[in-house]
Amino acid sequence: MATDVRVPTLGESVTEATVATWFKKPGDAVAVDDMLCELETDKVTVEVHAPVAGKLIEIVAPEGTTVGVAALLAQISAAGAASEPQKKSAKAAASVKEDKMIDVMVPALGESVSEATVATWFKKPGDAVAQDEMLCELETDKVSVEVPAPAAGVLAEILVAEGATVAAGARLAVISADGAGVVAAPVATAVAPAKAKDVEDSPAAKKAMAEAGIARDAIAASGRDGRVMKEDVAKAVASGVAAAAVAAPATPITVPRAPVLADDVAREERVKMTRLRQTIARRLKDAQNTAAMLTTYNEVDMSGVMALRNEYKDVFEKKHGVKLGFMSFFVKACCHALKEVPEVNAEIDGTDLVYKNYVHMGVAVGTPSGLVVPVLRDADGMGFSAIEKKIAELGVRARDGKLSIAEMQGGSFTISNGGVYGSLMSSPILNPPQSGILGMHKIQDRPVVVAGQIVIRPMMYLALSYDHRVVDGKGAVTFLVRVKEALEDPRRLLMDL
């Protein structure tokens, strides 16, 4: 029986792709997850992998063909086709197994996420489990994913130990409906990384590297098993990697740890960084290395916001069922300022500037696992109550590790509130590929001069970090002044001034 190979989901708003390269030909043997071909869309390059092992018997869509989502690309015949009696026997055996043994699979991990690390098993072989009871937790480089039991029974076998890396759709464990076949948990083993020398880069990436004059070692690869993709080359070009980088192969630079006394080593604890923490570290360092980052500061008198909030907070909560906080004022003030200074809401794509006629506002939230940035989509069209409700909902989901991939993608500008931790002044780091991030800080009574008189006012320092490649100093200062004006006189927001 043949298995169809179809075009996978291509991403938001992408409906078709072009078949760029076939890496297999009819008659070739293929293993599960072998790369069969590569598709190119107007945004990204997409790899298509073999869903089963067997033989590639037919290519339906040759190179150069334009195909839609779910279109048939090829067919694979299953490996080791059995005779009819064998098939019947196997089918009967499978039926018995299906009646008693249920596989626990890795769930969908989200767009562009192909693997995860098994963080924690909450059950061990022999434990009884109820349907939908949490069995284990997986960590990707973006979020934590809970894996519930698909059926009630006994956890018969754990196939993947803590610390191992698994692909989407892989088997994690087996549940026995009748409690039979219990096997001890496996010893934790880390999955060895693929050897880079055996990895074939995307043909489109090779062409782009040759045209740009950039060495492969100067590019951060994001493809499967360390393959360089076309978009990786575009990012390298955008970050200013010079053509002279075609020189000698780059040698990884590591900073050795300073010598530590043996007595001190015995009192230290070494803990492996979570995938989320590794991603945070990588992205923040990439932001520093890529963007021409600069920070400008101002301060705002919060008297107007605090007076308005105190006057209406009770009736606001009674009507809308949510408390009136400060964040909604800042979101509205930023949306207002972004209309006047749209480059702060733009991003670089290769040699183009992309101006966005919407505001997807990222709101940085601290969690026990690290900083995450859920996104308020179309925040510029939301009222105060809608903003407060959405922030409250996303905050709870973030702290519980329940945010989906989609809820953290697509932000165009970010607000970070270090003031909740007592920070008086800081320089926030950009959230790539965004060009601006506003840092809020602690509200503190300070003496200021108003109309020639020294008075005490609740003041807050504001910090705008921005990408100087996109935003000029005048635009950055204008943005911050508009935010200050809107907060010091919130009536300006109502009259769009």
From TrEMBL:
The lineage of its organism: Bacteria, Pseudomonadati, Pseudomonadota, Alphaproteobacteria, Rhodobacterales. It is an enzyme of class 2 (transferase). E2 component of the 2-oxoglutarate dehydrogenase (OGDH) complex which catalyzes the second step in the conversion of 2-oxoglutarate to succinyl-CoA and CO(2). The keyword Iron does not apply. It catalyses: N(6)-[(R)-dihydrolipoyl]-L-lysyl-[protein] + succinyl-CoA = N(6)-[(R)-S(8)-succinyldihydrolipoyl]-L-lysyl-[protein] + CoA. GO terms for cellular component: cytosol; oxoglutarate dehydrogenase complex. Its cofactor is (R)-lipoate. Residues 200-237 form the Peripheral subunit-binding (PSBD) domain. Pathway: Amino-acid degradation; L-lysine degradation via saccharopine pathway; glutaryl-CoA from L-lysine: step 6/6. Pfam families: 2-oxoacid_dh, Biotin_lipoyl, E3_binding. Forms a 24-polypeptide structural core with octahedral symmetry. Part of the 2-oxoglutarate dehydrogenase (OGDH) complex composed of E1 (2-oxoglutarate dehydrogenase), E2 (dihydrolipoamide succinyltransferase) and E3 (dihydrolipoamide dehydrogenase); the complex contains multiple copies of the three enzymatic components (E1, E2 and E3). Keywords: Acyltransferase, Lipoyl, Transferase, Tricarboxylic acid cycle. Belongs to the 2-oxoacid dehydrogenase family. It comes from the Bacteria. One of its GO terms (biological process) is tricarboxylic acid cycle. One of its GO terms (molecular function) is dihydrolipoyllysine-residue succinyltransferase activity. This is Dihydrolipoyllysine-residue succinyltransferase component of 2-oxoglutarate dehydrogenase complex. Its EC number is 2.3.1.61. The keyword Magnesium does not apply. PROSITE patterns: BIOTINYL_LIPOYL, PSBD. Residues 2-77, 101-176 form the Lipoyl-binding domain.
